[in-house]
Amino acid sequence: MYKYEKVIGLEVHVELSTKSKIFCGCSTEFGGRPNSKCCPICMGMPGTLPVLNRRVLEYAIATGLATGCTIREYSRFDRKNYFYPDLPKSYQTSQLYLPICYEGSLEIEVDGIKKKIGIHEIHMEEDAGKLIHDQDDEFSFIDYNRSGVPLIEIVTKPDMNSKEEVIAFLEKLQLILEYLGVSDCKMQEGSFRADINLSVRKKGQKELGTRTEMKNINSFKAIGRAIDYEAKRQIDLLEKGESIEQETRRWDDANGISLSLRSKINAKDYRYFPDPDLPPLVVDKDWVDEIRKRQPELREEKIQRYMKEFKLPEYDAKILTSSKYLADIFEKTVAISKNPKEVSNWIMIETMRLMRDRQVQVENITFSPENLARLIELVEAGKINRTIAKEIFELIFDEDIDPEVYVKEHQLGVVDDRDLLIKVVQEVIRDFPDSVTDYKSGKDKAFKHLMGQIMKRMKGKANPVLVNELLRSELEEL
Ligand SMILES: [Zn+2]
Fold this sequence. Notes:
Distance between the termini: 81 Å
Bound molecules: zinc ion
Number of strands: 16
Largest sheet: 9 strands, mixed
Structural class: alpha+beta
Strand order of the largest sheet: 2-6-7-10-1-11-12-13-14
Number of domains: 3
């Protein structure tokens, strides 16, 4: 197999998180009663006229700018004609000839090697409805709630050669879209889905092999498996002297195989033509500049800023920015507590541990930055010890409790009462005469033992610095 290389290009469909659909005012909210979120426009009734949702265009431009694309000043919508029951108009409104963004790229890094992946274009289009086959023996049902939900399709050049590169590209793209706030990128709800175009060729060969397309694979793991399987299938065919059919295949993740779905349809089979119902789009340069100015800080910039402004190690900065939600929690907490490294530690260690334990996704974290900041403050001021702080943090994570109130109510604060501590120190000295003798003969371990006994009697809540001081002075006096 060493003499072959994979050539992979992607078509990534991203559902935009606008409130309303692309050409009408219907809600884009996920779920709901079938056919409760549609109107004559998104149902494709004759005589209706679509009007483009300005926010869709804005999100497409923002994505184009963040991926180094050129924004086309004069673009157009085209009709992609095909009949399918989930497509009420019998054509999908899309962009073929003049897509809104073109010629961009993203840099990925795999095993320390950087590589630029070209983006051929980004175009806007509408989603189709959903067919439901499993509720009746005789009939299929159609739910048009998704019909007309805005999508952008990001088409890459065939610049990837391994599943690692594909996953690195998708992860980077997903994070950019998340930071831009243009999509929630939930693969399980289908708002971020990738089609994989894959071919193989002998190493050193210039021309591309015949490619197949695998559609709608809904997890990164499945994408990796599908690539391995499909590359092997193609190589086996070539080794047997057979040829590869250009076709669309369906990846069956449960059985770990890809199956032929239909022979690949070419662009000409769709009889594309400019949509006469939608006027050409003329994008004002000033507006593009305005969108550019409003672009949020993306991950690379954040990493640099965290290292410079908060003096964090690169390792911390990379983890904290690995999700927009995590970065948000970090920044909000730092704004209150002014102790970046402590905040970073609480997020990287305890927060991430509890996310794993409780199986909580980062976007579903509910604790408030205020309560984490208060907890850090209590530890810093020596009012509670770290063991207790960790226990309290679990309650903050689960129920967002106020740690100050909790410490007071449960008397968890560190004991600073000199008189009380002297009493306990004296008791321990009296109860462990052997350790005292050992200490006097110069054995340091005996001091630790006595400290341990005092802390045990205080249930770990004594101020260790004060106990240390009191114990030493009491022992001196003997
Ligand atoms: Zn509608």
